[in-house]
Amino acid sequence: MSTEHTNSPRADSPQSAAQAAREARQAPAVESPDLADPILELAQAMEGPLRIPAHTPDAVRDNVASLEDRLIGGQREFRRREVAAEAGISLHSARKLWRAIGFPELGDDEVFFTKADKAALGTMVGMVREGKLTEETAISLMRSVGQMTDRMVVWQIEALVEDMIANQNMSDRQARRQLFSMLPEIIPAIEDLLLYSWRRQLNSAVHRMALRVETGVAAYKQDSPEADGGTPLPLARAVGFADLVSYTSLSRRMNERTLAKLVQRFEAKCAEIISVGGGRLVKTIGDEVLYVAETPQAGARIALSLSRELAQDELFPQTRGAVVWGRVLSRLGDIYGPTVNMAARLTSLAEPGSVLTDALTANTLRNDARFVLTAQEITAVRGFGDIQPYELSPGEGAGLVID
Question: What is the pTM for the complete model shown?
Answer without folding.
Answer: 0.68
